[in-house]
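[SOLVED] Predicted holo structure with 2-acetamido-2-deoxy-beta-D-glucopyranose

Edit: marking solved, answer below. Original request kept for reference. I posted the sequence and ligand SMILES and asked for the 3D complex as structure tokens.
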Amino acid sequence: MKAHFFSLLLASFLKSRTDAAWCYNSEMSCTSTCTGPEFWSNMSNSECNGLSQSPINIVTRKTEQDPDLTPIQLIKYQESHSWNIRNSGKSVQVNIPHGPLISGGKLKTFYRAVQFHLHWGKNGSPGSEHTVDGEQYPMELHIVHIKQQYTSLAEALRDPTGLAVLGFFYEMSVNNNRNYDPISSALNKIIETGANTTIPNMTLASVIPPQETLTNYFRYQGSLTTPNCAESVVWTVFESTIPISISQLSEFSKLKFQDGNPLTYNYRSVQPLNSRKVYRSGSDAVLASAALLAATVLVSITLSQSG
Ligand SMILES: *[C@@H]1O[C@H](CO)[C@@H](O)[C@H](O)[C@H]1NC(C)=O
Ligand SMILES: *[C@@H]1O[C@H](CO)[C@@H](O)[C@H](O)[C@H]1NC(C)=O
Ligand SMILES: *[C@@H]1O[C@H](CO)[C@@H](O)[C@H](O)[C@H]1NC(C)=O
Ligand SMILES: [Zn+2]
């Protein structure tokens, strides 16, 4: 009886520990009771200990080329709308109520955009979630889409391919990226956790690299990178990067966590690949340019013969 009572007590102790809100290591302090990454897997309904977790380190020489990974079709990405942008206490999140869509690139159906958010380091130090051959970029953009047939994220999370997330890396540039001016000015108004404001007029296309540069990407099956880490994401991580200046990057580090400390290092560390494979799109760049060179030589021979 005593032992039973004790185990009940232990269970309730563990429960109370692991039901505390999740947080990043950068948010933990001596006084906080939040659940850091080490214990995300102990939270209720957690899949954070699964075998198909995200993010991962992409080892390019181990990726397998798949010619069926054609360019992703971006539908209504050019439509201009006003956006609600919010300091979620974990990131900056922009909700997308207007339903731009993506298809193609081996996605089985249309997926509708629902929100985008970012992960960063501190004042431009490394902060992306995915890494490529061990390189971590200063920031990463995630545009979250759900299968068109679903009306909520919760519904999509029960489907192993319910979500399609497009991931983009940022790379430090000397000049400011003018496309990010609307976001920069909004950040000043959402310093505190929970604050939100409106971006009057912006397109989704303006926050990503030009569409013609998006043919090269990586594809793998993974998870959400925050609890409950549901394994229901078809990941598409693009090679082409978004330029951003150090001063623009630093503006993200001025935001605050719930406790008032700087909202920095809001990324999850890379997870084991286990038995998964990472695929890469399109034609091999080296082979493509070699073929182009051969074609050019052929044309000039033909021309010189005919002339
Ligand atoms: C957390 O879960 C792991 C297994 O996933 C277990 O080994 C560990 O004891 C748990 N820790 C706590 C504090 O519940
Ligand atoms: C935005 O903030 C206002 C308070 O300033 C609040 O009433 C509203 O619910 C918030 N909206 C969103 C979408 O968070
Ligand atoms: C939004 O911007 C686009 C071009 O970027 C412009 O054509 C359109 O008139 C603007 N709409 C509003 C409501 O300001
Ligand atoms: Zn994310």
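OP edit: The pocket of 2-acetamido-2-deoxy-beta-D-glucopyranose (ligand 3) is lined by residues 80, 201 (CB under 6 Å). Thanks to everyone who chimed in.
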